[in-house]
Write a structure and sequence with these properties.
With 215 residues, the protein is mainly α. 79% of the residues lie in helices and 0% in strands. It has a domain at 2-134. It has helices at 2-23, 28-37, 46-61, 63-66, 70-90, 95-107, 111-125, 129-141, 148-161, 165-177, 179-189, 194-211.
Length: 215
């Protein structure tokens, strides 16, 4: 009887671990349809969880996702927000899960959950540059509802990104494209040593040239 019980448990675990790949396989249209219709299982492992969160990130931020019908988009965002919360409940230290929770909440206009997700993402992954870039992007998109602790997270993220090889290019690009962002990043850059300030100015010039803003 014990052996049968263990086999049943193993089968259940195998099903849950493999379920995300079956439901969210295929092309963008298939993935979108699945996310619209059901809350995806997040799996048991970190790898399976990240796979689901990756699909939700793509659905939420890609051109394909942003151009879908508003009712369909709201369903996808709601299902992804639920999946991200489930993932963060099971793995409270997952900065990525908290980020997707906050990102989807922000796009649904749920300000309290947006602020909570961004702050918890930073608390659990303050030094992850790729997550910092996403947090900055989402804070800028939702700046009108960002509360002071969330704005403080953005300042911490900006301070890290403007001195990093990876982050400086993305911040310079946003500086060029988003006039409302400029004062916030300049306030950070002005506190840096002169060589770092010069690097940022050079990065902005390169971003402007690449965008065609300066010829």
């Amino acid at each position: 009887m014990v052996g049968i019980g263990l086999l049943g448990l193993a089968g259940s675990c195998l099903y849950r671990e493999s379920a995300p790949y079956g439901v969210l396989g295929g092309d963008d249209v298939s993935k979108w349809g699945a996310l619209r219709n059901v809350v995806p299982e997040t799996g048991l492992s970190i790898v399976a969880n990240q796979f689901v969160l990756d699909q939700c990130l793509a659905a939420s931020t890609s051109l394909f996702g942003r151009t879908r019908a508003s009712t369909d988009r709201a369903s996808v965002l709601d299902h992804c927000m639920t999946a991200a919360k489930q993932s963060s409940n099971e793995m409270p230290a997952s900065s990525y899960a908290w980020l997707i929770y906050g990102l989807t909440a922000g796009q649904l206009g749920r300000a309290a959950e947006f602020n909570d997700g961004i702050q918890r993402s930073w608390e659990t992954g303050a030094n992850e540059q790729w997550l910092a870039e996403l947090r900055v992007g989402q804070t800028e998109e939702n700046f009108s509802v960002a509360i002071e602790p969330t704005k403080a997270v953005e300042r911490h993220d900006l301070a890290m990104l403007v001195v990093s090889q990876r982050g400086i290019a993305s911040i310079a690009k946003r500086y060029v494209s988003d006039p409302g962002f400029r004062d916030r990043v300049v306030a950070i850059v002005e506190t840096l040593p002169t060589p770092d300030q010069q690097r940022f100015v050079s990065a902005v010039k390169q971003a402007a040239l690449s965008s065609g803003t300066v010829r």
